TrEMBL record:
GO molecular function: ATP binding; metal ion binding; methionine-tRNA ligase activity; tRNA binding
Cofactor dependency: Zn(2+)
Subcellular localization(s) per the UniProt record: Cytoplasm
Keyword RNA-binding in record: yes
Motif ('HIGH' region): 14-24
Subunit (UniProt): Homodimer.
Cofactor binding mode and count: Binds 1 zinc ion per subunit.
Organism lineage string: Bacteria, Pseudomonadati, Bacteroidota, Chitinophagia, Chitinophagales
Keyword Lipid metabolism: no
Entries under Pfam families matching the protein: Anticodon_3 (PF19303), tRNA-synt_1g (PF09334), tRNA_bind (PF01588)
Name of the protein in question: Methionine--tRNA ligase
Organism: Chitinophaga silvisoli
Gene encoding the protein: metG
Amino acid sequence: MAKFNRYLITAALPYANGPVHIGHLAGCYLPADIYVRYLRAKKADVKFIGGTDEHGVPILIKALKEGVTPQDIVDKYHKIISESLSDMGISFDIFSRTTKQIHHETAAAFFKKMYDDGLFEEKETEQFYDEVAKVFLADRYIVGTCPKCGNPGAYGDQCERCGTSLSPDDLISPRSTLSDAVPVKKKTKHWYMPLQNYEPFLKEWLLEGHKEWKNNVYGQCKSWLDSGLQSRAMTRDSEWGIKVPLPDAEGKVLYVWFDAPIGYISATKELTPHWEDYWCKEDTKLVHFIGKDNIVFHCIIFPSMLKAHGGFVLPENVPANEFLNIEGDKISTSRNWAVWVHDYVKDFPGQEDIMRYVLCATAPETKDNDFSWKDFQQRNNSELTAIYSNFVYRTMVLVHKYCNGKVPPFHMDVKDEVDDKLLSDLLESKKKIEDALENYRFREALAEVINVARLGNVFLQGKAPWTLAKMQEENQKLIDNCLHLCLQLTANLAILSNPFMPGTSKKICHMLKVVDRMLEWENAGSLKLVNTGYPMREPQYLFTNIEDDKIQEQVEKLHAGLVKPVEAAPAPEAAPVKEDIQYDDFAKLDLRVGTIIEAEKVKKADKLLKLLVDIGTEKRTVVSGIALHYSPEEIIGKQVTLVANLAPRKMKGIDSQGMILMAEDAGGKLVFVNPDVQTAPGSEVR
RNA sequence: UGUGAGGUAGAGCAGUGGUAGCUCGUCGGGCUCAUAACCCGAAGGUCAGAGGUUCGAAUCCUCUCCUCGCUACCA
């Protein structure tokens, strides 16, 4: 740590088109805040930067749909998001927004510098355009029928049903999601950043220089670099965003992923005139806290931008977390499967520390993790209440009972090895916590904090002052020593848990009547935090048990809020009937009834089943794309209709001798077309 | 399709070649200052599966299975 004289900590800018949920907290805001509070307690020079990301197409679209301006949307969500985060004690030094003037200027200047240095490629391409809504459409905003699986709700970049990567050109009957118009191709010019030019730099800086990064982050970056980078457009056609600062750039804005990370710089500028100390001096440690969805932008693209522009420090680490699930299911804002932060602070006022604790304890640090209300209750009741709060409470009660509510003296003459052990255990825990925090292992650090409370309970149990008190006069010295140490340990707990649960630490300070300055990290491990003879306040509970009904209420609320997916997307009308054919055309088809006698999945193909079909005279091997609708076991013995004279075709190396007829509904569900009753295999269909 | 991360006791995790560990939960005991809280103890695991290297494998190699992500114009 000696290498660095100041810290610049950023947390991903939440996108201002909706509120934040606990997945956001667990993924980046909470770990960032814990890290920052720890650094502040160490009296480090640190700035904690955040803000809302307010540009981009989704905001524009949301505004169009709601009939308001994009500014209305971002104003609304900036307010909700910043209040939610501040309610949870996320202690940004500044929480800015990318629609601010200072950011527009900073981002535009950044772009201009790169442009002037000749670092962009100018390319003209054809993009899809919605002539009704008068906007260019990202692939995502075009829907149509998937050519592979027939899903009528496939997006222009991917079909979510069969997982195929698509381009809008592949879609059958593409439509704009905005206006339903048929997209047309239109020429447009953009500025591309040739990321491939930065490969040598990235390989050396990241792959060679930062092997200590988390597995998930490092692996992801290595995967990108190994497969080779390519040019990426840094501008978009849109009215909502930062205008491209060039003369011939009407209707062009910066790509949100170009402007958003520059938001960290703009916000620092807004915060302090000394912003350059944090961004441009080599002895600054820059750390980006993000969720795993942001890895490439923060580890590949933004560092390349910083390098290209020149004069900026590069991130020292990017400790991205994985995703948090809720009650076993992915968080989904569109289905409203989420625990919203603004709901939590309303339903559990003054109990932010419980959620901070639970989210840190179950944070998805190495893999996706699950949040459940049952777990929330259990951790509160058995860890925070039973171990932590209870230790502090019983200490306070005993001090009031046997020591008149004042810090008892410590008598050196009756000190024993158990007392010494307590101190050495405490120092060891402190070291473990520091080590874990400095290496972004927040779960581990927090577990060790609880362990300190556990040490207290073991100590208290072993000394049993309530037993000593049966002969209080002769044992007073022993009682004093025990409770003196328990009080010092309580004060230590306040320091050690402060980064995680600042509200709780404050409560302890209040009870012990000490000033907040005691919470400075260098005081941890000291046994001189409260002074002999000093009176304490009345005991108070730091945490109380949460009853089943309160948890039940939350679970019900979660399920009640769940929005059922709209059945089969915007159910398109049945496909129009094709043009007439003559009987002879039809007669060319040889359709037979067959019985499936064997079925197995085709390896390395999600959708294919290999079938053996008995058509009386022979048995045919047929590969059919029905694996998503039928399992092999359930179809053996079923009768089907087979196109028997279809030219054989190899699929996945298997010769498919025919095709099974399927009926498909508007939602894309496939069912067999088969005889009404069992019919002899080989029967002709006409 | 390729690729990244992950798969260890009922749950959540640690463990990179040498007797499988921690927390919660469960069960038994102790204590009574404390919020049915605390303390002590026990049960519970063919370390996803198969094969290989090794005196020895959760750990190294190969293959397979499962979960989640990425695959470049969603942010």
